[in-house]
């Protein structure tokens, strides 16, 4: 924690990237891991967050600190709408994944075709001078501390939920929805709560991205790479566990940076690697890294 | 909006629809037998388009003729994918199988990006620009051949499923997996055949469109989503539905392009998709399984 001020700039950037993707993984994990609803379209919430705070900043001069909460609320509302439609009509498993993907793609197409939100040219976030009250800082270090705090809060929330009534309901719904309902769990309400929390947190990540990179466009924010980037750390680290997404990101993100560095000028090499890792993890480590560690521990205990 | 424009949109839609139908038939076949929504379907098509492109550029093979090479080649690729990647994970949870094919899709799509970069490549054949007028509508010969060829192949697939032993085994497996195993069908072989045939279908579709469509890695994604829409619309595992769904989506897309500004036509396809998934997940023609 104290080391980053001493790190060279490139390493700090990688570290921010690791923690940023861990954050999105944690947000995805609440819905995908804990509730067992695999969203392929978390980019929708990410984009809503990024666009809401950025447009409020550019059009009304509102500070992104408030804009990000409004974006989060809007994303949660959209998540509830999406979730209510899907769950109400009984969409499960892959069908839910496809619907979430379709919603994210719809938002991408709409934003590409809407001049008011900058269409495909995107939006540039002012970043010339530092203004902490406006979520603008000189240098990378403040952003590192911000995303670190965000991850800390999201982890604490996940940990708390896991031990709460909601957490038990989520586990019950994930393992066997019909049995959970028979036992008196409100399955629809439980899944919607997970959806709202997950989309709210994801949207905050969108605002962070907009402020940190000072530029957003429809493909970056609403495109499939954010959706995949959010689910991958959770799956690789261990879906439905508190630390899974963090472990996953610490493995995946530096690996992707290294690949990009090693195969400079070859676009796609890092995502190609992600694809291969996804296939390997599902085949050999279906419970992720956390699952592997747990299995080892159980075996050691037996001895 | 003039009648000419409307007629043109209808003609373009119908010409696109046949190809969509063939792509979706392959996806539907894989789903029917394996119960897997194959996310890598579009990526297989994209690879087949590159195969067609390179056969044309390096060996001068006509795109239509190259189907003789690419269809069997991609049948083998499909069998290999099923045997090595999907089959060992048969017991895995449904969403994990979906992630498996998503991983394959990411791998193939970006492999193409690494190998051949993102630039659009086109196959320029002597008949590329050939066209004729049908009333007020312009009909490109390459699009007509692609649509007619695709429908023919889909009919061929249908005949294969109805008339041959492999076809009967495939249908038996789709309807009653355990019963099929009980009567002595080699189920793992038939599962491999379904992935192989599905991939051969989409490879043939890829070859048929290269004379008028650009070849690039991102073709995978757009055809993938389109194929999901068509299959959901026609009913998962329903071949006639897939073919009919192809024409409906083709029409909806080209009418959307005529009426809506910019790239908003893509919205039409997604809206249909979500509505059908929510309201009639068994498809408008009924499928083997709904929700």
What distinguishing features does this structure have?
heterodimer; A: 303 residues; mainly alpha; ABC transporter involved in vitamin B12 uptake, BtuC; 13 helices; 2 strands; globular; B: 291 residues; 11 helices
Q: On the 0-100 scale, what is the average pLDDT of chain A? A: 91
DSSP strand content of chain B: under 5%
The total tally of domains of chain A equals 1
In the CATH scheme, what's the topology name of chain A? ABC transporter involved in vitamin B12 uptake, BtuC
Shape of chain B: globular
- How would you name the oligomeric state of the polypeptide chains in this document? heterodimer
Q: Order of SSEs of chain A, N→C?
A: HHHHEHHHHEHHHHH
Q: Biggest sheet of chain A: strands side by side, in what order? A: 1-2
Largest interface: A-B, 44 and 47 residues
- State the end-to-end CA separation of chain A: 37 Å
Q: CATH top level of chain A?
A: Mainly Alpha
CATH architecture of chain A: Orthogonal Bundle
How many separate helices of chain A?
13
| Helical content of chain A (DSSP H or I, runs of 4+) | over 70%
Mean pLDDT of chain B: 88
Tally of alpha and pi helices of chain B: 11
Q: Give the number of DSSP strands of chain A.
A: 2
- Percentage of helical residues of chain B? over 70%
Structure, described:
The complex is a heterodimer of chains A (303) and B (291). Chain A has 303 residues and is mostly helical. Chain A contains 13 helices and two strands. Chain A has helices spanning 9-34, 43-60, 64-88, 93-112, 141-162, 165-175, 177-182, 187-213, 218-222, 224-237, 244-262, 269-284, 288-302; strands at 123-124, 215-216. In chain A, strands 1-2 form a two-stranded antiparallel sheet. The radius of gyration of chain A is 19 Å and the shape is globular. The two termini of chain A are 37 Å apart. By secondary structure, chain B is mostly helical. Chain B has a domain at 14-216. Chain B is 72% helix and 3% strand. Chain B has a two-stranded antiparallel ribbon with strand order 1-2. Chain B is globular and about 60 Å long. The model of chain B has no long low-confidence stretch (mean pLDDT 88).
